[in-house]
Amino acid sequence: MIFGGSGDLAQRKLIPALYNLALQRLLPATFSIVGTARKPLSHEEYREELHKAVAQYSRTRPLNEEVWRSFAEHLHFVTTSDDAGYEELRRTLEQLDFALGTHANRLFYLATPPPAYKAIVEAIGEHRLRGDTGWARIVVEKPFGHDRASALELNEIVHTVFREDEVFRIDHYLGKETVQNILVMRFSNGIFEPIWNRQYVDHVQITVAETIGVGERAGYYEQAGAMRDIVQNHLLQLLALVSMEPPAAFDDKAVRDEKVKVMRALRRIAGEDLSMNAVRGQYTRGFIEGTPVPGYREEPGVAADSRTDTYVALKLWVDNWRWEGIPFYVRTGKRLPKQSTEIAIQFRAAPHQLFSRDALAGLEPNALVLRIQPDEGISLRFGAKVPVQGIRIRAVNMDFDYGASFMVDAPDAYETLILDALRGDATLFTRHDEVDQQWAFVDPIIKGWASSDSAEGPALYEAGTWGPTEADALIERDGRKWRKA
Amino acid sequence: MAEGVVIDTTFWGTRQSGVAALERELTRLRRAQSAHARELGRPIARASVLNLIVYADREEHARRAARSIADLALRHPSRAIVVLADRGARDGTQKRIEMHCRLPIADGARLVCYEQILVRARGDADDRLASAVIPLLVPDLPVFLWWTGTPPLGSRSFGDLLRLTDRLVVDSADFARPEVTLPVIARISDEARGRFGLTDLNWTRLTPWREIATAFFDVPAWRLFLDGVTGVSVGFAVDMDGRDIHPSQALLFVGWLASRLGWRPLEALAPSEAGGLLFAIARPDGARIMVRVRPRFERGLDEGDVSGIRIKATAARQLAEFAVKRQPDPRHQTATVLLDGERRWERTMPLPSPAIVELIGEELSILGSDRTYEAALGALVELA
């Protein structure tokens, strides 16, 4: 059941992911998909529309027409513009159950814009769409609420129909292979965890850089900004994975308990701390890969005096035994020069240097970099002797390249997550208390920026540059600098 | 319609539609290489120790630079981004950035991979060039910028690229007017102190001359003469008709002596016969030193290369002359010491190859600033 079944997300991600699962023979035999939307469409028109979408967006190409044909037979469409629509939906689901004998196991997916969530959940309750015999689960797309209060409210609404263990709040970052690999790397190896703390780490940098602008999402983005769009979910998830304590087991409870614990330890930024620890920016016109692009305020649908943040840089502290005194510098932005998501653990320098200043000129601090995308991999930077007479030291990288090592394309994040939801494994989904803590951290910053005291608005940066100079100052004040991502 | 130069795709690789497509293509090529290596039982890692941006405004220069880098791949596996500023196409050419890429396999180095990318900027792309280069840099590796020709000071693309750079490599032998360009370069390097280092390939060519000049004064008996220098003469090569005058290498030698020995300027550089220079410098004790920099026609030398040096000095009532000359065969140099006109010592030594590959290779192994060079440049700036 996909609500928003002909929307952008369904076309670009969900249906291609389901098709690829079918291609890998990972879908249950008796499986059907019902898409709903407010606009009227026939089953045939719907299938035709999705056929085009899958041909365009699937990670495997070309489209396997045989597989598609049998996949499409299980695609249905129901218009749900009113109560009668929902009643028809109930009948459709019952017919499918009867025809296929699926025991009414149902996975609902909210792929509509967030304002529609409330009405849909209420309709699921009212029209008894859960079914009686099988399991029912609901996947809710991010953003879950737009602040702490609204997240709580949405949660209450969802909980009127679904128990918490039936709610799967999705953050597709967690479905990425390389994000899961953070856990594998930290907790399946013996050599990293002993140095993963304040004794050895100097600081941590997390970068989520996009080259794209706001595109056609201005309506949503004007309200959200980078803080709600990226920081509240993706960035804090990465932070949690890299800073959390080792869970006792790899299951939904243990992993998420640890993530919530570390989110609670995240020091709140508010009041006077704001200007020293947080920078927001907005892009002006510039160039991306040599092509001119407009400034944010010139984008369609954006107010000419918009103060929406398209860039955020923060200096964070995790106040616990492991990380006391170790800053986490995080940044995200649109229209940055390259697309890159990575986490860099920078280690302390050797305690005593035997080599001369000239010999050390090329040495840079040891760093372990987890590249999430693109070029998924891990690299470790250390100093090596340059092969010449005498001692000259140069930082070199030891690279692990995911693609070259495994030679297969990783599954798309949505494939992983949809499959997990079907299996009922919530480890890679966000629990309510986690969302609550994320908002509890983000809210005071957004409020601080919105308050009349900080009238100056976001700092401007030219598209195609690494953000405003204020962000450089944020880290350079501490004698450190942003990595060349 | 003017279409500029034609890009030879067998050399530069196929054209890619953007950074993402280019990276995908490189990944595909790496995988193919890696699979091939695995069959041979020799898995490879992607080796890269530096980003090298080469800026050229002619295709043949770009190609020559790319070949030099390929030859260096064994010692310096790198991602090389060759920027070709193709302004040739005049008005009406759409400003456009095109990219090509290839994984050339260096001779005898089947397992080293070196990534070659061509960024071709068509029309006047000064404002957008850097935006195409930044996303191509491998994160975290030092960035060398090798600028062929005279750096266009004040141009936006030069400034933008310089901001990314850990070390700027120029060749002052290429400067059309070194007396103007060298001081400006010195100023840039001074302002950028600590942010990037500066290298001049012409300075590297001078190394054997500096070595031999230093060697004279390692001899205790001759060391006294260092404080009693009265004249310095440096010859540099010009072509037969003496039109192209490139005194920068010779000037750097003078600047080096001045900065090491604490000589102060007395008068400005003055032109003398046939494009040479004649001027006086003051020793720390105030005595005058006459400096002569003069062009000479010599076969087998590149224009601007130092052909000989002569240092005159007095100490303990003796007159000494320290001279180094290139042999007619330019691969050797001969050093001679005369005391009161009498030959006391002479030795002939090989001169290292001045091939650009060697020069660049040497420079790429240094990351910090070359303070000796910067001081020599500083002394020259005071003279100019």
SSE diagram, text form:
The complex is a heterodimer of chains A (485) and B (384).
Chain A: E1 2-3, H1 8-23, E2 33-37, H2 43-57, H3 65-72, E3 75-79, H4 83-100, E4 106-110, H5 117-126, E5 136-140, H6 148-161, E6 167-169, H7 177-188, E7 201-209, H8 218-243, H9 252-265, H10 273-277, E8 278-284, E9 286-288, E10 291-293, E11 311-317, E12 327-333, E13 340-347, E14 367-373, E15 377-385, E16 393-401, H11 402-406, H12 413-423, H13 432-450, E17 459-462, H14 469-476
Parallel strand pairs in A: 1-2, 1-4, 2-3, 4-5, 5-6, 7-12, 8-17
Antiparallel strand pairs in A: 7-13, 8-11, 9-10, 11-12, 13-14, 14-15, 15-16
Helix pairs in contact in A: 1-2, 1-12, 5-6, 6-13, 8-9, 8-13, 9-13
Chain B: H1 9-12, E1 15-16, H2 19-39, E2 50-56, H3 59-72, E3 78-86, E4 96-102, E5 115-122, H4 129-133, E6 143-147, H5 156-164, E7 167-170, H6 178-191, E8 197-200, H7 201-216, H8 220-223, E9 229-238, H9 248-261, E10 264-265, E11 277-282, E12 288-297, E13 306-315, E14 318-326, E15 332-339, E16 342-350, H10 356-364, H11 371-383
Short description:
The complex is a heterodimer of chains A (485) and B (384). By secondary structure, chain A is of the alpha/beta class.
What does the model show?
The complex is a heterodimer of chains A (485) and B (384). Chain A has 485 residues and is α/β, with parallel strands linked by helices. Chain A has 14 helices and 17 strands. Chain A has two domains: 140 residues, Rossmann fold (3-Layer(aba) Sandwich); 281 residues, Dihydrodipicolinate Reductase, domain 2. Chain A is 37% helix and 20% strand. In chain A, the strands form three sheets. Chain A has a nine-stranded mixed sheet, sandwiched between helices. In chain A, strands 3-2-1-4-5-6 form a six-stranded parallel sheet. Chain A is globular and about 80 Å long. By secondary structure, chain B is an alpha/beta fold. Chain B folds into two domains: 157 residues, no CATH class; 150 residues, 2-Layer Sandwich (Dihydrodipicolinate Reductase, domain 2), CATH 3.30.360. In chain B, α3 packs across α10 and α9 packs across α11. Chain B is elongated, with a radius of gyration of 24 Å. The relative contact order of chain B is 0.12. The chains are: A alpha/beta (485), B alpha/beta (384).
